[in-house]
Amino acid sequence: MTGHLRDIAVVGFAQNVAPDPGLSETEMLLPVLTDVLAQAGLAPGEADFTCSGSSDYLAGRPFSFTMTLDGVGAWPPVAESHVEADGAWALYEAWVKLLTGDADTALVYACGKPTAGDLEDVLTRQLDPYYTAPLWPGPAALAGLQAQALADAGGTVPPGPGSTVVDGAAAVVLAAGDRARAMCARPAWIHGIDHRIEPHALGMRDLTRSPSTRLAAERAGAFEAPVDTAELHAFHPAQEVILRRELRLTDDVVVTPSGGAPAADPVMATGLIRIGEAADRIRRGESDRALAHATSGPCLQHNLVAVLEGERRP
């Protein structure tokens, strides 16, 4: 969605990827929150709104996200929300909250401990419960299915590793207008952000395409001007091929300079990290217009695209 009335920017980003596996989610998160709040010049609990992303399925217990509030500092009470999804979708909710004018700053964070259980089994629970889930296909099998579909359609599947699953946490601070300018020398302004979803059943989709990614990019304003950087949330090289095509990325675009999910995939924080990494390149002056992509569900089912710029658009 573009054409909004308030200018909102990323003014801080921190991550803690592949920490000591013995740490709890709260222990992983605490240094991240300390870092990102210091970048923005905020004290714990000072952000107008807090939104988190995680999954009870990974933690193996209900309402696990409430425990991470110990790291946030929820007393005195804070305005807080949670999405049972990657932190990129928590950022979307916080962005909408700031657009309404009900808040000027927001703390967004995400964490996940996929090593706490068998991720291959856990992620089958997001599949169609009647036809697909009973077969127990894990992420690796589904990535192979998508790669084979691309090869059968005449596409080239480059060699390369899939995602490297690790524990991790990440956090972002958003701020609006003059508040963002006061917090950061070069804010990463969110020009547009949108997310779209495709049918749940794999048999109802063309696995060599990702129309939800293309539509989300279009609605976020990605095709209004060239981007110089793109951070892609791709679990497998075949998915990067599909995303590059749908996002119309030319050879001169720097694609996922951070290494992306193949380097480190802290499930439930990976998408938020893509936004944070793109924003950091803008804040450092290494990019002027960047695209960040996050995905959820099997074979690129649900996709979010954010466009960030180094200068505020009128």
Task: Give an account of the 3D structure.
The structure is a single chain. The chain is an alpha/beta fold. Helices cover 33% and strands 21% of the residues. The protein has helices spanning 25-40, 56-59, 65-72, 87-99, 119-122, 139-152, 177-183, 211-220, 237-246, 260-263, 270-283, and strands at residues 8-17, 49-53, 80-83, 105-112, 168-176, 188-197, 229-231, 254-255, 289-296, 302-309. Strands 3-2-4-5-1-6-10-9-7-8 form a ten-stranded mixed beta sheet. Helix 4 (87-99) crosses helix 11 (270-283). It is globular, with a radius of gyration of 18 Å.
According to DSSP, the number of beta strands is 10
Strand percentage: 15-25%
How would you state the average pLDDT, rounded?
93
- How much helicity do the residues have? 25-40%
Poorly predicted regions are: none
Largest sheet: number of strands, sense, barrel closure: 10 strands, mixed
Integer-rounded radius of gyration: 18 Å
What structural class should be given to the helix and strand makeup?
Answer: alpha/beta
Series of secondary-structure elements, N-terminal to C-terminal? EHEHHEHEHHEHEHEHEHHEE
Sheet with most strands: strand arrangement: 3-2-4-5-1-6-10-9-7-8
What's the tally of helices? 11
For the record, give the distance between the C-alpha atoms at the N and C termini, rounded to a whole number: 16 Å
Shape: globular
